[in-house]
Specification:
Distance between the termini: 22 Å
Helix content: 25-40%
Oligomer: single chain
Shape: globular
Radius of gyration: 21 Å
Structural class: alpha/beta
Order of helices and strands: EEEEEEHEHEHEHEEHEHEHEHHEHHHEEE
Largest sheet: 8 strands, mixed
Number of helices: 12
């Protein structure tokens, strides 16, 4: 394998940027400083004016294989991840068959070994077939997975969730909770706010999310389980998690780029604005932004959820829930949160590249260091680009960012010592 040298980039080391060359040899970082081609041949890339960070990490994606490969595959999803600067992604278990035992999980792991161009870490389910009733064998599944989740549905039964947390806690893995009280949904499909009332849509209440966040925090406090709250969208969820952290509860959480950019005033009558949880009010959006800024929200995750075109072309009421996000995430967050002056670039690096590594126990949380596996992303914060879904590597095309001009782009993605994406 050829060496790679990235010259003169601003390199993330020990929580700050330093200007250096970085060399990659035999899939590992071989030097940070003045770099030479150890093999005498290889690829030399100019990183001048750009920022080299540990590869971005996404704790929440849907790659749809096995079971729904007409929407996305491991091959297409991991290619989209590489184009978005991600070197590690965690796939949710709403698949067919659901990864609720080792045999079913093996089908997904085999596809990952065959087709993934970045590291893909699956979640196993919390309950059999994600039905919210029978617990899976956490001890048997733990060595193979990032954690446990029934994402797409919340665990409705309090006794089942408490037993799940007691079972997962000894494994040390996270329980990634989709917090949603089904009896409070009222057949809604967008946020229960001004837009829904003005346009005759059925709304999803904020309480349907935060009530279950409150319950799960209480149970995590009791059991010591590592709780990770998925895709929070309400101001109440932010405050509940902030208070829980102050009490010392072992809880982390994520929100998505679209919840930071948009509010329900921005909705349009198109399926590309439909996801679960929904885009909520301006007050919710502002609370989420503040939560990212002050660290209450640990990571930004895309909830990349591709669907076929016909499934997303039926308007707000009838379209499937979910939008794609891997290829727009960095530009969307940089434009919304950094270019706008809301937070420093260093906080984006923490939320998109560093803290996810800490949560998963991956190397690279201290920055780019000699001896580590060569997973890194070169970021061009000056490049402006227009979101054109027809150019996506993902099979999904539905995004609320369609047609928008974003600032900040991925120039290079190196995964396991190999260049997986390059647009310098």
């Amino acid at each position: 394998m050829e060496d790679i040298i990235i010259r003169g980039a601003n390199v993330w080391c020990d929580g700050k940027f330093v200007t250096a060359d970085v060399s990659i040899h035999d899939r590992k970082v071989s030097s940070v400083g003045e770099a030479l081609l150890l093999s005498g041949k290889g690829t030399i890339i100019s990183g001048e004016g750009k920022y080299l960070v540990p590869g971005l990490v996404d704790l929440h994606v849907h790659f749809r294989e096995p079971g729904y490969s007409y929407k996305e595959t491991i091959r297409s999803g991991s290619a989209a991840a590489a184009a978005g600067g991600f070197t590690t992604v965690c796939t949710m278990p709403n698949l067919n068959p659901a990864p609720d035992d080792v045999e079913n999980l093996k089908r997904q792991l085999d596809a990952i070994r065959l087709d993934a161009c970045v590291d893909v870490l699956p979640y196993a389910t919390i309950t059999r077939k994600r039905m919210g009733r029978e617990l899976v064998d956490y001890r048997m599944l733990a060595p193979w997975v990032a954690g446990f989740s029934d994402d797409g549905t919340g665990v409705q039964d309090d006794d089942v969730m408490l037993a799940a947390m007691k079972g997962i806690a000894p494994t040390g893995k996270i329980l990634a909770a989709h917090c949603e009280v089904e009896r409070l949904l009222n057949k809604g499909y967008i946020h229960d706010g001004d837009y829904a009332r003005a346009h005759g849509h059925r709304g999803i209440s904020s309480e349907s999310e935060w009530a279950e966040v409150e319950r799960d925090i209480r149970m995590a406090e009791e059991t010591g389980c590592r709780l990770h709250v998925c895709h929070i969208s309400t101001k109440e969820s932010v405050e509940l998690i902030r208070q829980a952290k102050a009490r010392g509860v072992n809880v982390t959480c994520e929100t998505g780029p679209h919840y930071l950019t948009f509010c329900d005033e921005d909705l349009q009558e198109h399926g590309r604005f439909k996801m679960n949880p929904p885009i909520r009010s301006r007050a919710d959006r502002d609370a989420l932004r503040q939560g990212v800024i002050d660290g209450t929200i640990d990571v930004i995750a895309t909830d990349h959820a591709p669907h076929a075109a016909n499934e997303k072309s039926k308007g707000l009421e009838l379209s499937a829930m979910g939008v794609v996000g891997l290829e727009t995430s960095f530009g969307a967050v940089y434009t919304t949160m950094v270019e706008s002056g809301l937070m420093p670039f260093s906080r984006l690096v923490e939320a998109m590249a560093i803290t996810g590594r800490t949560i998963l126990g991956l190397p690279g949380a201290d920055g780019i260091k000699v001896g580590d596996k060569a997973d890194m992303t070169l970021l061009d914060i000056d490049r402006e680009w227009v979101v054109e879904p027809s150019c996506f590597r993902s099979m999904g095309r539905s995004t609320p960012y369609e047609g928008m001009t974003l600032k900040g782009a991925v120039a290079l993605t190196v995964s396991n010592g190999e260049i997986r994406y390059q647009k310098l």
